[in-house]
Design a protein that fits this description.
Elements: H1 5-23, H2 29-34, E1 44-53, E2 58-63, E3 72-83, E4 86-96, E5 103-110, E6 116-124, E7 127-130, E8 132-135, H3 136-149, E9 162-170, E10 175-185, E11 187-189, E12 192-197, H4 199-203, E13 208-216, E14 224-225, E15 231-232, E16 235-243, E17 249-254, E18 264-273, E19 279-290, E20 300-302, E21 305-316, E22 319-327, E23 330-336, E24 339-345, H5 359-372, H6 379-389, E25 396-400, H7 403-434, H8 441-455, H9 457-462, H10 466-489, H11 498-511, H12 515-543, H13 550-566, H14 573-594, H15 601-617, H16 622-647, H17 654-669, H18 683-708, H19 713-727, H20 734-746, H21 754-763, H22 773-781, E26 785-786, E27 799-802, E28 810-814, E29 820-822, E30 824-826, E31 831-835, E32 845-854, E33 860-869, E34 877-882, E35 886-892, E36 897-903, E37 908-910, E38 912-913, E39 918-924, E40 934-942, E41 947-954
Parallel strand pairs: 3-13
Antiparallel strand pairs: 1-9, 1-25, 2-5, 3-4, 4-10, 5-9, 6-7, 6-10, 8-25, 11-12, 12-17, 13-16, 14-17, 15-16, 18-19, 19-22, 20-23, 21-22, 23-24, 26-27, 27-31, 28-29, 28-32, 30-31, 32-33, 34-35, 35-39, 36-37, 36-40, 38-39, 40-41
Length: about 950
């Protein structure tokens, strides 16, 4: 063990506590009020997931909704303890929330390659809330409980080695403090080991108020750093203020020559603690080896008893890492190939040591969990290890909740535990009854368990009844089995449903239920599903402009026949399909216009088609009803992009220039949409506001520099030029900005960034009059709540709109999954608005959004807004042109399309993508196929890997 290891073990907890108190103490009375008053009571679930890996590390704290701003890192504290060739690093980051309302945020952290995230915490006021392992099912239950009385967090999927925590109700304009702990091997270079933290990735080109880095090393070990810090008793400590990181922070350790040979070894090892401050005889080790010969055999360790080698890694040529357990204490001989070296496995430290998992211990545990997780049969072992090491797995989550909130929910959690246990026991009993084993040992055990739950203190308190649980379980199982029986009768199963039929009878007899009711319900559900699939196919064909095709006509007639037979008639499915087709035509027409082909033959055909569809639908104008809304939607998106680029000082970027060009092109198509700077809420007014916001920030910095550094003429001149440039884009002189900000500075008001200024100014416009509670209620009664009744999962972002006055404090949409979506005031439409994305795994169904409005007096009212999800397939338009010798294959798709394959009668070809959403390819026709009537099958693959097929005839 290294010379500084004992210091790390015995003083870590005490040093961290003292360090936190000193570093995060507010620097003045004003900061003491706002520095770490973090948020309303919140709940947090933290998960690890296993899909594709990421290439670089970094942290991101971003709102869950796109109409709010990412939280920026304000300050960082990094502390590392280096032990041999491994290190434990703790990163504490203070994030600034510039949003003018409380938000829900995702904390996404990508760990450096090879690192293991060993801990997570956040601060709730003065309380440090540490995350602990919880079974994923239990975490979901607690989430449901917390939903009823607080703003809970939510588990979401991230990539492998990428960790995500959803944090709800981050208070407006308040700081949020988050801590991550890591364990990782040092980076290996030819003759150097290096500890590095990806500071540039974490800060993302942001200037930090302060940065503090402390790296603790062996005092006798040679090292150097890239930050200019002086070494003090093995430690490096540096502080930076108003600092923008340009490089990652790094401490390197040159490899000393080894007297026993060219094999070099670094060991991190320690005995296990006994939970009472002492140590046991066995422990964990992590061994790093470097050889100049790159042996192919595995390293061997003798002279010490080792076991449970979880991993032997070969991260580079001539490098091996071994993770395992050991017992006793001795100088061991490590042999790798024909080279040897001696390594001392340490004795247990003397004295009392607080229970802290050693670095080698958590690395061993993480590897063991990862190896076992490949087989679902190891779930119980993995969950046990996850709890033991407090490390994440695919079956567990980290759960963090402030102590006060946790006590509040304990009783409800116990009730849910009882309910869940009752459901599990009831299901087990129902399955045994279905299999004609009502008195098997498993069934008897389930019955006994239900009785025990009823008699338990929690069961008595919550009113749990054995009979109710049993009946509910029987009904739930009958619903499942009835679907299997009906599927078999309709020929939808490859195997016989005879056993399911017998099982359904047994369940019905035991539960005194009428099986025919369940069969009718199951049959009706399958009928709905069947008709819905046919309607989706019909809609796809109509949008592909094949409505007159005999097969499509037959499909339409079949749908009508089935609807009449099943009694589920819907006279609107044909018009709905035609509406979607008209929208596709309008979108395609707009793409043609933006590509400069507005007067082209294809655009003319599309407009004629759109007009014909509109007349058939009973409308009177393709331009007003379909084309112009497409222009407005594109204009809003392009204008938002342009404003964001202006506000960020990137008005000359390629993104900005492209957005500006698109805005002007769209105005040329719809001149009546153009406003002026004096039209409050217009797009021109919003752009002017972005320029004025930047000018105000520059003016404040200029006034501050003139006051604090009057001799710094270079900086004053630079700021004055910047202010003149910015004011030139507004209708105000630079002197007006400087006078206003000088007054604010003299009044003791703080700097407002351009983003803060724009939010304040945008939020102060509009309705100013106050309403009485009665008037507010009447306004609410007349409020407009709307969302699209049907929409596609891929291209649409449905609008939620609430027409209440702007002086209302807050309008929030609570989505079906519990996430909160704050609505933003729209000065143009004079209503509160927000768009929401549908999850790609969302199910077609009817849902309800809860709308909570808070009036100027603080009174809350909640409304329910229903909406439905319908997921039609993509709506491409395909054609096969050319001549009998060369076919011209063309397909017009939306922006979500990734690729298109055309399956010809003799081969398959991939179409080439163009910028206007069109895919095309020419195909030479073999002699035997020339002049023959044929069909081309197009397979469209979107960016979510979903596929859609359409057929186009050639004759």
């Amino acid at each position: 063990m290294s010379a500084s290891k004992t210091y790390f073990s015995q003083n870590r907890a005490k040093d961290l506590a003292r360090h936190d108190e000193a570093v995060y103490k507010p620097r003045d009375a004003k900061n003491a009020v706002t520095a770490f008053h973090v948020m309303k009571p919140l709940f947090l679930v933290f998960c690890l997931f296993t899909t594709a890996a990421v290439s670089q590390a970094g942290a991101l704290l971003k709102p869950t909704k796109s109409n709010t701003r990412n939280l920026q890192p304000r300050a960082m504290d990094i502390r590392a303890q280096v032990d041999g060739a491994f290190a434990r690093t703790t990163i504490t980051t203070v994030y600034a929330n510039a949003n003018r309302s409380s938000i829900e945020a995702d904390f996404v952290y990508a760990a450096p390659p090879g690192a293991v995230v060993t801990g997570f915490a956040y601060w709730f006021g003065k309380e440090k809330v540490v995350a602990y392992i919880s079974d994923r099912e239990r975490a979901a239950q607690i989430y449901q409980v917390a939903q009823e009385n607080a703003s809970p967090s939510q588990v979401e999927i991230a990539n492998r080695n990428v960790f995500r925590a959803r944090i709800s109700q981050v208070a407006a304009r308040q700081d949020l403090r988050v801590q991550i702990e890591l364990a990782a091997p040092l980076e290996r270079e030819p003759n150097t080991l290096a500890w590095r933290y990806p500071l540039v990735d974490d800060t993302r080109d942001v200037t930090l108020d302060w940065l503090r880095v402390r790296v603790e090393t062996d005092p006798n070990r040679a090292s150097k750093n890239n930050m200019g810090a002086q070494k003090n008793n093995g430690d490096y400590l540096w502080r930076k203020y108003n600092f923008k990181p340009k490089v990652d922070t790094r401490v390197s350790f040159p490899m000393p020559p080894n007297s026993t040979g060219k094999l070099k070894a670094d060991l991190s090892a320690e005995h296990r603690t006994d939970g009472r401050g002492g140590f046991l005889d066995d422990g964990f080790f992590a061994l790093d080896l470097k050889s100049d010969k790159n042996p192919q055999s595995a390293p061997q360790i003798s002279g010490i008893t080792t076991s449970d080698i979880t991993r032997i890694e070969r991260p580079a040529s001539g490098v091996a890492r071994v993770f395992g357990r050991y017992s006793g204490s001795n100088t061991a001989i490590v042999t790798w190939g024909d080279q040897k070296t001696s390594v001392f496995f340490p004795r247990p430290p003397q004295g009392y040591v607080k229970e802290v998992q050693h670095l080698a211990q958590v690395l061993w545990g993480a590897h063991r969990i990862e190896d076992l997780s490949d087989d679902d049969r190891n779930k119980a072992k993995v969950v046990a290890l996850s709890h033991s090491f407090n490390l994440l797995s695919k079956w567990t989550s980290w759960l963090a909740m402030p102590a006060k909130q946790r006590k509040q929910y304990d009783e409800q959690i116990k009730r849910l535990d009882t309910q869940r246990k009752g459901e599990e026991l009831g299901r087990t009993l129902a399955i045994e009854i279905e299999a004609n084993r009502p008195f098997s040992p498993v069934a008897l055990q389930a019955r006994a368990g239900l009785r025990a739950l009823e008699r338990s203190s929690v069961g008595r308190k919550t009113g749990f009844k054995e009979e109710h649980a049993r009946q509910n379980a029987l009904r739930a199982r009958m619903k499942e089995v009835a679907k299997t029986v009906v599927s078999g009768r309709l020929g939808l199963l490859k195997t016989s449903a005879r056993d399911a039929t017998l099982g359904l009878k047994r369940l019905a007899e035991t539960g005194a239920q009428d099986e025919d009711d369940f069969l009718r319900n199951a049959q009706q559900g399958l009928r709905f599903k069947q008709v819905k699939a046919l309607k989706a196919d019909y809609t796809n064909q109509v949008c592909a402009l094949r409505r007159s095709d005999p097969k499509v006509v037959a499909l339409q007639k079949r749908i009508v026949v089935l609807e009449n037979r099943y009694g589920i008639g819907d006279d609107n499915f044909q018009s709905n399909a035609l509406k979607l087709a008209t929208q596709v035509v309008a979108k395609t027409t707009l793409e043609e216009a933006l590509a400069g082909r507005e007067d082209g033959e294809r655009a003319a055909r599309l407009r004629d088609m759109g007009e014909r569809f509109v007349r058939e639908l009973g409308g009177n104008s393709f331009d007003d009803n379909y084309f112009k809304p497409q222009v407005e939607e594109r204009l809003a998106s392009a204008n938002d992009t342009l404003i964001n680029e202006i506000e960020a000082g990137r008005e000359n970027s390629g993104v900005s220039q492209s957005a500006k060009h698109e805005v002007e092109s769209l105005y040329a198509l719809a001149p009546d949409l153009r406003g002026t700077i004096r039209d409050e809420g217009s797009r021109e007014w919003q752009q002017d506001l972005a320029w004025r916001a930047r000018a105000h920030e520059a003016a404040y910095r200029l006034a501050q520099t003139k006051r604090d550094s009057p001799s710094d003429t270079a900086k004053i001149g630079e700021l004055q030029s910047q202010l003149d440039y910015l004011s030139g884009h507004t209708e105000q002189d630079s002197d007006e900005f400087e006078n206003a900000e000088t007054k604010r500075l003299n009044d003791g008001e703080p700097l407002e960034t351009a983003r803060q200024y724009r939010l304040d100014a945008g939020g102060s416009q509009g309705v100013e009059e106050q309403t009485t509670p009665d008037e507010s209620q009447q306004t609410l009664n007349d409020a407009m709540l709307n969302a699209a009744s049907q929409y596609s999962l891929r291209p649409s972002a449905p609008l939620i709109a609430v027409r209440v006055p702007q002086n209302f404090k807050e309008v929030i949409a609570i989505m079906p999954d519990g996430t909160q979506n704050p609505l933003i005031w729209n000065g143009t439409t004079l209503q509160w608005e927000a768009r929401f994305d549908v999850p790609t795994d969302g199910q077609d169904n009817h849902y309800t959004i809860q709308i909570m409005v808070v009036d100027s007096k603080g009174a809350r009212t909640t409304y329910s807004m229903p909406f439905s999800v319908d997921t039609p397939k993509p709506t491409p338009i395909g054609e096969v042109g050319g001549n009998s010798r060369v076919w011209d294959l063309r397909l017009l798709c939306d922006s979500h399309t990734a690729r298109v394959m055309a399956f010809l009668p003799w081969k398959q070809v991939e179409l080439v993508a163009h910028t206007n959403g069109e895919f095309s390819q020419k195909a030479k026709v073999p002699t035997q196929w020339q002049g023959r009537k044929s069909v081309v099958r197009f397979v469209i693959t979107d960016k979510a890997h979903a596929t859609t097929e359409i057929e186009v005839s050639w004759s």
